[in-house]
Amino acid sequence: MSLRKALKLACLDKGITQKKLALSAKMTESYLSNIFSKGEMSVRNLQKVCTALDMKVWEFCRLGDV
Question: What SS3 class is residue 1?
């Protein structure tokens, strides 16, 4: 599963920019940018991102498997 791929697809699907996602998830843009580039994040931050995207964790993770 690729978190990087899931993030990109989820943002495209929801029509949300990286900047807006960072604000909604209460993260800094630089931290979120790091996630996009490295494809790594904690479970806690995964939940924040999923909440900001209005997705369940399993839905988000499934995007990275496609």
Answer: coil
Global pTM value: 0.85
For 11-36, how does the pLDDT look when each residue is reduced to its tens digit (9 = 90+)? 999 999 999 999 999 999 999 988 88
**CB atoms near residue 60 (< 10 Å):** 20
How does DSSP classify residue 41? -
Burial 9-47 (b: 16+ CB within 10 A, else e): bbbeeeebeeeebbeebebeeeebeebbeebebeeebbe
Q: Which two tokens stand for residue 39?
A: 């494809």
**% of residues, the chain, pLDDT over 70:** 97
